[in-house]
Amino acid sequence: MSIVADSVAPPKAPPPHPLRTPYRDMSTERLLEEASCWRWDWAEIEAAAGADPDSVPFLAETRAFIQDRLLPITEELERRQRLRGNVWAPPWPTVWPDRRAEIDAIKAGIPIETFVETMTTTRLRRSGRQLVGLCPLHTEQTPSFTVDPRQQLWHCFGCKAGGDVISLAMMVYNIEDFPSALTFLAPIASVERERTGVSRG
User: Fold this and answer.
1) Predicted pLDDT at 11
2) Phi, psi of 131 (to 5 degrees)
3) Full strand arrangement of the beta sheet holding 125-127
4) Gap between the Cα atoms of 62 and 84, Å rounded
5) Quick count: other Cβ atoms within 10 Å of Cβ 181?
6) Backbone Cα Rg of the chain
7) For the chain, what is the mean pLDDT?
8) In this structure, how many other beta carbons lie within 10 angstroms of the beta carbon of residue 175?
9) Per residue in 117-139, pLDDT tens?
10) pLDDT digits (tens, 9 = 90+) for 95-113
11) pTM over 0.85
12) In angstroms, rounded to a whole number, what is the distance separating the alpha carbons of residues 35 and 178?
């Protein structure tokens, strides 16, 4: 009995492991840095909007988007924290980079509306206190991408994503983690990146 090679279906790739996340292979030091960056960014957005939350109609969506990004990082760190007592577990780092000053400087150095107009194909037009345009993250005919220049936040009502200039750069340019986004944006904002960390153990 002969088997024709063309008639045989190629083997299917195994499905991804349900417990594996993009952060499973990241070093603990890098995970701690990633988590601290997201938490500081979130705290700054909350503080900026705290005085007048109604001025940002999509604050709740932005908050939910950042929480979704932070949740798998936090879960992976909690998993590793539980394994710290295991003799085979690597040592828990006591030092990792503190990027708060860089985050502040980059956000101050790149107005979000300037980033959108110069680093994406989107053109913005004013609509009341907001700027609107076609979303650079997906194809659409009706503008659903909104920028709040006062709060320096963006939100797309089509793809339900939102945040500030850093999260937008991550999504537009497919940047996997927050520190890499800072590396990408620092020269644009004329910011000198710090290479040293501070003790946070």
Assistant:
1) 54
2) -115, 140
3) 125-127, 130-133, 145-148, 153-156, 162-163
4) 33
5) 22
6) 21
7) 82
8) 18
9) 999 989 999 998 889 999 999 88
10) 888 899 999 999 999 999 9
11) no
12) 9
- The letter for the amino acid at 185 is L
150 vs 9, which has greater pLDDT?
150
Run of H or E including 134 = none
Which of 78-92, 143-157, 187-201 has the least mean pLDDT? 187-201
Residue closest to 166 by CA, chosen among 37, 50, 70: 37
Beta carbons of 19 and 164 less than 8 angstroms apart: no
Please determine, for residue 54, whether its predicted confidence score (pLDDT) is greater than 80.
no
DSSP codes of every residue in 89-132: SPPPPSEEE--HHHHHHHHHHS-HHHHHHHHSS---EEETTEEE
Backbone angles phi, psi at 113, to 5 degrees: -70, -30
Distance CA 193, CA 187 (A): 9
Nearest Cα neighbor of 134 from 119, 144, 125, 126 is 144
